[in-house]
Specification:
3 helices; 2 domains; 4-stranded antiparallel sheet
Length: 231
């Protein structure tokens, strides 16, 4: 999450609070959890001070990583009474789907103060998807152009779960990758876009360009031939 987005979230809750104190803090765990579709996820919110009831002390919000908006987390179960020395509230999501992937925040409420936790990232994987799908995009070099930009799109898996590299002839290139979204709706899915720029001479002298994706212990590839044919 970008610094500006994080600051925006904190600002919203600072505006909500009518009093400020630095002695009442909370932390979340786990920071990151990987689960499969249908599994159960437990998120913990641990307060510095003792709390009486979780339903009045903590609420859970989910951050849309594309839009940066916080919305109430889907209906789950939260312990009424805190655990572990009366300081920890547990939020449980059962039978999770890929739509439950995201960044969850515990919002602590104490008297007239609200404090946001450090966030818990949940990644839900659908193992029924056999393997990611790869495609290579490129723009043919124009006359006088010194380089050719390439893109390898990897869809079907969360970007943090895949590594992408290129092979041109005997050389292996890493390039750089970024996360992108399939569309601008709330149901959009995240995918990986890997970039590489090669020289016009290398493009002319190369018969094949390969994009490789390492996922779940496997290597998948897409090959672009010099005349635009795929394999």
């Amino acid at each position: 999450m970008s610094t500006s987005t994080h600051c925006w979230i904190l600002s919203c809750f600072c505006m909500f609070a009518s009093h400020t104190t630095y002695s009442f803090l909370l932390s979340q765990s786990p920071d990151l959890t990987h689960v499969s579709v249908g599994d159960t996820v437990q998120l913990r919110c641990t307060f510095e001070n003792r709390v009486s009831y979780c339903y009045s002390a903590a609420t859970w919000q989910k951050l849309n990583l594309r839009t940066g908006k916080l919305t109430p987390a889907r209906s789950g179960s939260q312990t009424d009474l805190p655990q572990h020395d009366v300081k920890t509230c547990v939020f449980t999501l059962t039978n999770v789907s890929q739509n439950d992937s995201g960044l969850y925040y515990c919002i602590g409420q104490y008297n007239s103060m609200a404090i946001i936790g450090n966030g818990s990232r949940v990644i839900v994987t659908d193992h029924s998807v056999v393997e990611p799908e790869l495609s290579i995009l490129y723009s043919p070099p124009e006359t006088g152009s010194s380089s050719v930009p390439l893109q390898c799109l990897v869809t079907g898996v969360v970007p943090s779960q895949v590594q992408v590299f290129w092979r041109i002839g005997e050389k292996v290139h890493v390039g750089w990758t970024e996360s992108a979204w399939t569309n601008s709706t709330d149901s959009a899915t995240e995918f990986t876009r890997a970039h590489l720029s090669i020289s016009a001479d290398e493009w002319t002298e190369t018969d094949e360009i390969q994009c490789f994706a390492e996922y779940n212990g496997k290597n998948m590839s897409k090959t672009l031939k010099r005349y635009g044919e795929y394999k």
